[in-house]
Structure formats: structure tokens, C-alpha cells
Write a structure and sequence with these properties.
The complex is a heterodimer of chains A (235) and B (287). Chain A is of the alpha/beta class. Chain A is 33% helix and 25% strand. By secondary structure, chain B is mostly helical. Chain B has a single domain, classed as ABC transporter involved in vitamin B12 uptake, BtuC. Classes of the chains: A alpha/beta (235), B mainly alpha (287). The structure holds adenosine-5'-triphosphate and magnesium ion.
């Protein structure tokens, strides 16, 4: 049985519907990538799973339980953490405080502590007392990832962690993925960069206009199929 | 010499105003909520202490220890079940609801305790004074000022040294992202208002020991508190203490020139600061 699963998930903003019955699955120790053009609904899907947007009963299941109607704070306590799009560090908090607050809703121990996060991203130890927002974009992204890891999640949702970063910096950040997996987390990675998504993921879902249009393992998907799923066939 | 005395008395009086204002500053800093019933809650706290003193025969300071947790729970419930519902993008609902609450509180106090003015019983210690050179400083104003400094120091420690304080600041920055950390903003706000009402109770004790009070004096306490918060800069706790002191000194100096000018000079000082520094003395950087 899947660790995390959405079934017929719909979501929207007021009268505007952004997701139309999305079904995805994430297995234990799996990494799944979600790709799609701007406005496809990737962030909406992440926010629905994380509980920022409320869903209908049993549209999201995690670890055998229905989490569709839980609030964001309840969901992170259960073990699903999110690195939000745009990083969203707390400007009033230092780097270290941003990391510490990630452990606010944590229950029990686990691999990730301040020390192991600083081991993963050594530059953060040097900048621990700076305001989070004084860091470079890549370093801020490291703080955002570290902050989510501090809850010792079983599922980590990463929404465009490469957004706006230089290729070398993106490499640095993705270098952390094996350690994150080794510590026992499964990942859902939202990516605009298709090559990056195909490189990191065990399976890929492609989204368009609020629907899943294609899914499969990276080597089973042809460039053309991805192109069609991305932009719609016949364009 | 007389001027030094006047200014010193003003500084000590500023401690009382800072106590009035600290809770308001805390709540505004965390959730951008201006509680128009703040002054009436102070008066209610004073009546609560009075009831404990008369019913149980407790000394006022012992009554304070019982009143503080009661007021914390009241503040928690008030925020959780009423004020949280008014928070949103529109700033009008919280103003209307707390204004209504102010009217309700005043009338409830009037019904229960009549319009007669009351006072908390004072003893020899609270009416004593310390002779410092040629100047006599009342023990009560000194205690008030010391309490104000302690409250501000305590709140700063809470804000910058504890996990709850981090949660306060994070929620104030961005409540949605805070909820992704396992924080429940509704509970954080409720706790903040609970703490604000604990401070309100301390302010109420000194209000009731220092002078007479009746159910109608709340709105004027709100004005002093509000002026102190604005002078200090919204969200700055030390600024709030400075703001209280400025109003206190302006009032005693004004009164020394002409007793009728006491209240007016406080308001004028407020207007002058507002003209010179529209965002207050210590505005927060990221507002
Ligand atoms: N807060 C909001 N209010 C109203 N509509 C929104 C809101 N956020 C997103 N939308 C709309 O919902 C749709 C899906 O947006 P979403 O942010 O989920 O897309 P996305 O795939 O994450 O895009 P991007 O790659 O640009 O991040 C878009 O049409 C967008 O305009
Ligand atoms: Mg997005």
C-alpha cells in the first residue's frame, strides 16, 4: 500500500477550480517528481496535501489514515512536511531560529537535529546568527529545506527548490537528496526543470490544467510524450 | 530641585502607563489587532482584585496572584472564541467587535458594582516614601515602575529566548507558513491575549492602589496606553516603556505649570512625537 495517496483530489480558490480529480501515489522510500507548466496546479496540489487548503474526506491518505480534512499543523505532526514555493523564511528569525521552529510540532526523536542539518549544509552553521533573509538565494533554500527536515518527516514535499538559482547552486542543493532519503523520508519534488526531475525521481507525474496527463518511470517516458503532456497534444 | 522632583515623579508615573500599554503592544505586535476594550479590561481586573480582597480578606498583592491566572484564561477564551473570528484582511471587524466589547464591559461593571468609585485598600508600606536626598519618592510609584521594567524585560526574554517566543514571531511574520511548522495560529493568538491580560491585571493592581476607579475610566486608560504604544513605535516593547515615560513626564511637568494642563500636556507630547517621528521612536524594521 502506498505511503501517501490522493484520490480524486479537487481544490481551488473561491469559485476558481485548480485541481480536477488528481490521483497520485508515493511509496515508502520513493522519490516522485511532479512536472508541469506554469499554472498547471503543482503548488495547489502540494498545498492541498500539506493541509494549507482543506480537502474532502478521504481524498488524501497517509500511512493508512485519512488526512484530507486535517489542518496543516496536524499534518506536519503526523509526518508530512513541506518546503514551500518561494522558501518563505521567517524574516524576524535568525537562520538557527528558522531551523528550530521547524521542530515545533515534532513528536519524538529522529535523525535530523541542528547538528545534522549543519552537517548537511555546513555553510548554515557559519551563518547561524544572521537573519534568514540576509542569505543568498541558495542558502535560503537550504534553510527552508533544513527547517522542514527538523520535523523529521516521513514525507517531504519540495515545491520548486531550484527556482531562481544558478545551476551550480541547484547541484549543491540536490546533493542533499540521498542523505534525506537515507534518513527515512520519501520525497515529492515539484520541478520546472525536466532534466533535473528525471534525474532525481523514481517516477514522474506530468500535470496540465489541474489534471495528471502522464506518469511513469523516467526511462519509460519519451521526450515527445512529456512535451505533449506538458503543453497539450497537437501544439 | 523642584523640577528634578517633578520629572522623577513623571518617570515613575510613566511606569504605570507602560503597564497599561504593554499588553496592547504585545497583542498588536503579534496579530495587528487593536483591542479597544483594553482599558475596560484593566478596570475589570481592578474590580476582580477588589472582589478577592473583600470576599476573601486577602491583601491586594495576594489577590493579584489569584487574579492573574483567572485573567489569563479569560483572555485565552476571548481570543480563541471571539476575536480570532474577526481577524482577516479587513481591519474593521476587530475594531467594531472590541468597541462593542468595551461598551458591554462598562455596562456590566456598572450594573454589578454601581457608578461609585472604589479603591483598593492600602497599608503603611504602600503609602510610605523613600527620602533620596531632598526628594521623596513614593514606594508605590517605585514598585509600579519596577514592575513595568520587569514586565518588559520578561516579555523580551519570552520573545527572544523561548520556543513560544519564536512561535509568536513566526506567526506574526507569516501565519500560513507557521502552520506548516506545526504551529496553530489560533492557539498562539489566544496565548498572546492571555499573557496580555496577565499584564493587564498587574496594571489593574497599581491602578487601584494609586487612585480611585469606577466603571467609566477604561477608555481614558486605553488612550494613554495607545499613545504610549504609538510613541514607542508599533511592536517595540522598550519603545512602549519610553512612550509611557514621555507621557508621564509631560503630564507631571504640565501639572506643575498649571494643574489643569496635566492631561492636555500628555496628549500634546503625543502629537509632537507623532509630527516629528510619525512611525514612533523605535519602529520595527520590517513593517
Ligand atoms: N491564491 C490564489 N488565488 C486564486 N487563484 C490562484 C491562487 N494560487 C494559484 N491560483 C491559480 O491556480 C492555478 C494553479 O496555480 P498553481 O500555483 O498551483 O500552479 P503551479 O503549477 O504551481 O505554477 P508555477 O509553476 O507557476 O508555480 C493557476 O491558474 C493560478 O492562477
Ligand atoms: Mg507553483
Amino acid at each position: 500500500m502506498a505511503l501517501l495517496q490522493t484520490s480524486g483530489l479537487t481544490a481551488g480558490y473561491g469559485d476558481f477550480q485548480a485541481l480536477f480529480g488528481v490521483n497520485i501515489e508515493l511509496g515508502e522510500a520513493e522519490t516522485v517528481a511532479i512536472i508541469g507548466a506554469n499554472g498547471a496546479g503543482k503548488t495547489t496540489l502540494m498545498r492541498s496535501i500539506a493541509g494549507v487548503l482543506r480537502n474532502e474526506t478521504s481524498s488524501v491518505r497517509f500511512d493508512g489514515a485519512d488526512i484530507g480534512t486535517l489542518t496543516a499543523d496536524e499534518i506536519v505532526t503526523r509526518g508530512v512536511a513541506m518546503v514551500p514555493e518561494g522558501r518563505r523564511l521567517f524574516p524576524s528569525l535568525s537562520v538557527e531560529e528558522n531551523l528550530l521552529i521547524g521542530a515545533y510540532g515534532r513528536r519524538g526523536g529522529g535523525h535530523w537535529t541542528l547538528e545534522t542539518i549543519y552537517g548537511l549544509f555546513p555553510i548554515l552553521a557559519e551563518r547561524r546568527h544572521s537573519p534568514g533573509t540576509a542569505l543568498s538565494g541558495g542558502q535560503q533554500q537550504m534553510v527552508a529545506i533544513g527547517r522542514a527536515l527538523m520535523s523529521n518527516p516521513r514525507v517531504l514535499l519540495c515545491d520548486e527548490i531550484s527556482l531562481g538559482l544558478a545551476p551550480v547552486v541547484i547541484k549543491d542543493i540536490y546533493r542533499a537528496v540521498p542523505a534525506i532519503k537515507a534518513a527515512g523520508a520519501s520525497l515529492i519534488v515539484v520541478e520546472q526543470d525536466i532534466a533535473q526531475a528525471l534525474a532525481v525521481a523514481d517516477r514522474v507525474y506530468c500535470m496540465m490544467e489541474g489534471r495528471i496527463t502522464l506518469s511513469g518511470t523516467p526511462d519509460s517516458l519519451s521526450r515527445d510524450a512529456i512535451h505533449d503532456a506538458y503543453f497539450g497534444a497537437g501544439q | 530641585m523642584i523640577w528634578i522632583d517633578t520629572v522623577l515623579q513623571g518617570i515613575l508615573l510613566g511606569g504605570l502607563y507602560a503597564l497599561f500599554a504593554a499588553g496592547l503592544s504585545l497583542v498588536f505586535g503579534i496579530m495587528r489587532l487593536v483591542n479597544l476594550a483594553h482599558g475596560d479590561l484593566i478596570v475589570m481586573g481592578a474590580y476582580l482584585i477588589l472582589v478577592l480582597v473583600t470576599l476573601l480578606g486577602l491583601p491586594p498583592f495576594a489577590a493579584l496572584l489569584i487574579a492573574m491566572p483567572v485573567m489569563f484564561c479569560l483572555g485565552w477564551g476571548l481570543q480563541k472564541f471571539l476575536l480570532n473570528r474577526t481577524l482577516g484582511d479587513d481591519i474593521l471587524p476587530p475594531l467594531l467587535v472590541t468597541f462593542g466589547l468595551s461598551v458591554v464591559l462598562q455596562n456590566a461593571l456598572l450594573e454589578t458594582f454601581s457608578a461609585d468609585s472604589q479603591r483598593l485598600p492600602t497599608d503603611a508600606l504602600t503609602t510610605a516614601s523613600l527620602q533620596v536626598g531632598p526628594i521623596a519618592l513614593g514606594v508605590m510609584p517605585l514598585l509600579t515602575f519596577a514592575s513595568a521594567v520587569l514586565v518588559i524585560v520578561g516579555l523580551n526574554q519570552l520573545f527572544y529566548r523561548t520556543s513560544l517566543g519564536r512561535a509568536f514571531r513566526a506567526t506574526s511574520d507569516d501565519a500560513v507558513t507557521a502552520s506548516l511548522m506545526g504551529i496553530r495560529p489560533a492557539n498562539i493568538f489566544a496565548t498572546a491575549t492571555g499573557i496580555a491580560l496577565v499584564i493587564v491585571t498587574i496594571a489593574a493592581l497599581y491602578l487601584g492602589l494609586r487612585a480611585n476607579f469606577d466603571p467609566n475610566i477604561g477608555p481614558a486608560r486605553l488612550i494613554y496606553a495607545f499613545e504610549a504604544v504609538i510613541i514607542g513605535g508599533l511592536g517595540s516593547l522598550w519603545g512602549t516603556l519610553a512612550g509611557g515615560i514621555i507621557i508621564g513626564v509631560a503630564q507631571t511637568v504640565g501639572a506643575a505649570v498649571n494643574p489643569e494642563w496635566q492631561i492636555l500636556s500628555g496628549h500634546i507630547a503625543f502629537l509632537i512625537v507623532l509630527l516629528v517621528r510619525p512611525r514612533g521612536l523605535f519602529p520595527r524594521a520590517n513593517d
